[in-house]
Amino acid sequence: MNLPLLELRRQPGRFVVATVVLGFLATLLLFLGGLLDGLYLGSTGAIRAQNADVFVYSESARDSFLRSRITAEQRAAVESAPGVQDVGGLGFVLLGAVIPGEADLADVAVAGYELPPKGVPAPPNDGEGIADSRLQDAGASLGDTLLVGPQRSPITIIGFVDDSSYLLQSTIWVSLSTWRSVQNVNRPDAAVGDTVVQALAVRGTGDLVTSIDTATDGDTKSLTKPEAVLSLPGVKQQKDTFNQIIYSTLAVVLAVVGLFFSLLTLERLGLYGVLKAIGATTRRLFVGVVLQAVVVAVIAFAAGSILALFATAALPASIPLQLTPARFVSTFIGLLVAAVLGSAISLRRVTKVDPASAIGNAS
Amino acid sequence: MTVLDMRDVRKVYRSGDADIVALDHATVQVEHGEIVALLGPSGSGKTTLLSIAGGLLTPTEGAVVVGGHDISEYDAKQLTEFRRENVGFVFQSVNLVPFLTAEENLLVVDELGGGKGGKAAITRARQLLDELGLGHRLKNLPGQLSGGERQRVAIGRALFNNPKLVLFDEPTSALDTKIGAQVMELIQSEMKARDTAAIIVTHDTRMTTYADRTVHIVDGRLDADAVGADH
Ligand SMILES: Nc1ncnc2c1ncn2[C@@H]1O[C@H](COP(=O)(O)OP(=O)(O)OP(=O)(O)O)[C@@H](O)[C@H]1O
Ligand SMILES: [Mg+2]
């Protein structure tokens, strides 16, 4: 027998409103988190997929691949820097692509590489590419030849890879020379020379950032992989904005739980007086309140998760919402913490109940 | 053996800037198995005396020894444990846990004492309720019981831990005369059967017939024979 749990079972009606409200808040939290994850994963896939420890940009690029240019001499300096083991060039260009049989242009990022990213083989022949699987959703299939950019540069799809998109666009992984020709034909204003790349992906040991930037005499600026991911345009801003909204929502959860259990405690003052009179400790009564809040939060989370899953399935694919297991875990923990803190607001009230009130002589 | 020994107990309530002396040098003893009626007008300090005897209130002055425990210096935590293990209470108004059945209301005592509501506890709860004439009411919620039945459940709860002392604060004032008399008879027979001491607060002189001895209280002062016949 457990008094707080029995009350939940016998008088569920008293907890329905709080559970429903928390359930919707759980759905909202999962939505917000799912959107954040969708945007984050969709924006950063191409960089997260890199098998690299450090990315090297030109000093003036302000941490942007598109603004960065690395020359052959700079590359040679990087290769000779202490700790550097493997170096590969990288180049991105964002363009529209015609998929055979599709009316709408697809947004693609043509990415030249040397060091194969996760799931991608060694650079293919010129004119061939390995595409992000998002492009399949847009109608592309294996063997299709896409016409990329205003000048309709042809790229034939010879494979697909998951989770490698760049700024919410489907990456097509190509050789550096294919990237250069696509870039120079379609973006003549930003043409690159035969030995130039945008940035370098570097593998190695030790403090690579310092050793590389010293070796190039300050011509380059290197970032670790996590830094490079966050410096993609908009990624950090999205993260901060969404996290702010998520924390605010958790504050609402805390307030709802706090208010609800304060009212419930107020209703129970008489009962608490009697229970204290016959030997219940404040601790036991308070733990009971917290336990009920936790159970309510767990049920609300379960209901909210199911709702979120159904709602997500009904969303159009253009909304970059992605529900990850990690997001469920963090939302669950957030809800639990907010529920515990919210119910803790009742501690003072429970403590103040005088056992003598049971008999009508509270001092 | 003396179950309750209160000596020179004073209780002063501070309300605003006035001091109310609710008990003034009250000395009373209750022997093992003895039923004492505490009779007095409204506001005379009956509930205050009962609360101090049961460790619900601490006295302003004086010594209180219950079942060998000197509780006058206990802190709130010690008093909680003391109440849980040594005394039973039956209050004036009905105060069962509304969402628990009659049987479960008794098992609350077991739970508070750290019990797991095992077979032994359930058997004891059923036996007690059976004795109290509620054998057919085990699974009923308080809301489904009459006032007299509820008060009998409360008596069962007070007896569950086998206390040496049970304190009743006007246990029949919310009941009609006939049911009240039945409940008093039940209290008397239960206390005698268990050799349990009891103080029954009342302002109804008819209730004193169920007691071994009556102590009168007026304005916080007890009459002379409060210490008992054999002292
Ligand atoms: N918490 C309190 N604060 C201030 N004064 C109190 C408090 N409790 C009781 N009193 C006062 O102490 C005196 C004794 O009260 P007590 O409740 O013990 O009387 P009683 O004999 O039980 O009365 P009744 O028959 O009406 O229940 C009364 O004057 C009462 O007003
Ligand atoms: Mg009273």
Layout of secondary structure:
The complex is a heterodimer of chains A (363) and B (231).
Chain A: H1 3-10, H2 13-48, E1 54-58, H3 72-79, E2 84-98, E3 106-113, E4 128-132, H4 134-137, E5 145-148, E6 153-161, E7 170-174, H5 176-186, E8 199-204, H6 208-215, E9 220-224, H7 225-230, H8 235-267, H9 269-277, H10 282-314, H11 325-344, H12 347-352
Parallel strand pairs in A: 3-7, 4-6
Antiparallel strand pairs in A: 1-8, 1-9, 2-3, 2-5, 2-8, 4-7, 5-6
Chain B: E1 2-15, E2 18-31, E3 35-39, H1 46-53, E4 61-66, E5 69-70, H2 76-86, E6 87-90, H3 102-112, H4 119-131, H5 147-159, E7 165-169, H6 177-194, E8 197-202, E9 213-218, E10 221-222
Parallel strand pairs in B: 3-8, 3-9, 6-7, 7-8
Antiparallel strand pairs in B: 1-2, 1-4, 4-5, 9-10
Helix pairs in contact in B: 3-4, 3-5, 5-6
Main sheet properties of chain A: 6 strands, mixed, barrel
Distance between the termini of chain A: 32 Å
Largest sheet of chain B: 6 strands, mixed
Shape of chain A: elongated
Proportion of strand residues of chain B? 25-35%
Radius of gyration of chain A: 29 Å
Distance between the termini of chain B: 12 Å
**What is the domain tally of chain B?**
1
> Quick one: CATH class of chain B?
Alpha Beta
Number of helices of chain B: 6
Uncertain residue ranges of chain B: none
Summing up helix and strand content along with how strands pair, one would put the structural category of chain B as: alpha/beta
Name the largest protein-protein interface in this structure: A-B, 25 and 34 residues
Main sheet strand line-up of chain A: 2-3-7-4-6-5
Folded structure, characterized:
The complex is a heterodimer of chains A (363) and B (231). Chain A has 363 residues and is α+β, with helices and mostly antiparallel strands. Chain A folds into 2 domains: 3-43 and 235-358, no CATH class; 47-230, no CATH class. Chain A has helices at residues 3-10, 13-48, 72-79, 134-137, 176-186, 208-215, 225-230, 235-267, 269-277, 282-314, 325-344, 347-352, and strands spanning 54-58, 84-98, 106-113, 128-132, 145-148, 153-161, 170-174, 199-204, 220-224. Chain A has a 6-stranded mixed beta barrel. The model of chain A has no long low-confidence stretch (mean pLDDT 94). Chain B has one domain (2-227): 3-Layer(aba) Sandwich (Rossmann fold). Chain B has 6 helices and 10 strands; from the N terminus they run βββαββαβαααβαβββ. The longest helix of chain B is centred in the C-terminal third of the chain and has 18 residues, at 177-194. Chain B is globular and about 50 Å long. The chains are: A alpha+beta (363), B alpha/beta (231). At the A-B interface, helix 1 and helix 9 of A face helix 1, helix 2 and helix 3 of B. Magnesium ion binds at residues 46-47, 169 of chain B.
